[in-house]
Amino acid sequence: MSISLPALSAQLLVGLINGSFYALLSLGLAVIFGMLNIINFAHGALYMMGAFCAYFLLNIWGIGYWWALLIAPIIVGIFGMILERTMLKWLAGLDHLYGLLLTFGLALIIEGIFQNYFGSSGLPYAIPDQLRGGTNLGFMYLPIYRGWVVVFSLIVCFATWYLIERTRLGAYLRAATENPTLVRAFGVNVPRMITLTYGLGVGLAALAGVLSAPINQVRPLMGENIIIVVFAVVVIGGMGSIMGSIITGFALGVIEGLTKYFYPEASNTVVFVLMVLVLLVKPTGLTGRAA
């Protein structure tokens, strides 16, 4: 087949945008699993809540996109911390299956409530005026908003990695999960750190929801399909691996975009095929470590 550079570039851009959402969501999952040992199946529902928060802020209080990028993750993060304090903390030390079942049930409840009130159709959310239009790169037309999503996601992902892997706060977080008794001896409030970590993880999901709202519209079930792919991303990168989730998220988005161009029939399954192949070769994932 002859290769059309504009069409190939367009699919690569779509892949990068999807990779941005995969990276942000899998990063939140990796933070929660790596720090708290919880498989958070409610992540897709919290991603959807981030988009709805942006929609409510705009249509009820007149608060636009830029403030929504800050406010929506905080609101959803607080909601996540309430969930952790009231439900998830009782699962500490139990098998991962209990956390998975609880968060899966929470996801069904949250999505059901939103679907009951707003139906299944998408609600429009406008691109901010500053990011409208596009620029001609010669080989393709680049919409400014989509380029912004990719760049902003990269900045947030690597800032989160730096926070957890290179700062004193991140060292406290890692120590609190590996040896909470010792950390308590130094006067650190471990339960509060665990709650804040869960809030950070779901806040990243909400941020991805705000970024996604102008592209994919705001729908109660918008997180239902993407969360399955995101779990595959986390498994391929390595459960709990921060850098693995970032790199794998963007890489699989690009691979998915290329597959849509060269072999569209396999675009919905390529991520899962790669997951199987990686697990056969390295069961802990590309950057994961054995427990």
Strand order of the largest sheet: 1-2
Instruction: Find the structural class using helix and strand composition.
Output: mainly alpha
Main β sheet profile: 2 strands, antiparallel
Instruction: Please give the CATH class.
Output: Mainly Alpha
Query: Residue ranges: pLDDT <50 for 5 or more in a row?
Result: none
Number of strands: 2
CATH architecture: Orthogonal Bundle
In the CATH hierarchy, the third-tier topology is known as: ABC transporter involved in vitamin B12 uptake, BtuC
Topology pattern, helix = H, strand = E: HHHHEEHHHHHHH
Any idea what the shape is? globular
Distance between the termini: 46 Å
Outline of the structure:
The protein has 291 residues and is mainly alpha-helical. It has eleven helices and two strands. The N and C termini lie far apart (46 Å).
What distinguishing features does this structure have?
291 residues; mainly alpha; 2 strands
What does this 3D model show about the protein?
There is one protein chain. The protein is mainly α. It has one domain: ABC transporter involved in vitamin B12 uptake, BtuC, CATH 1.10.3470. Helices cover 73% and strands 2% of the residues. Strands 1-2 form a two-stranded antiparallel sheet. Helix 2 packs parallel to helix 4 and helix 2 packs across helix 9. It starts with a helix and ends in a 10-residue tail after the last helix. The model has no long low-confidence stretch (mean pLDDT 88).
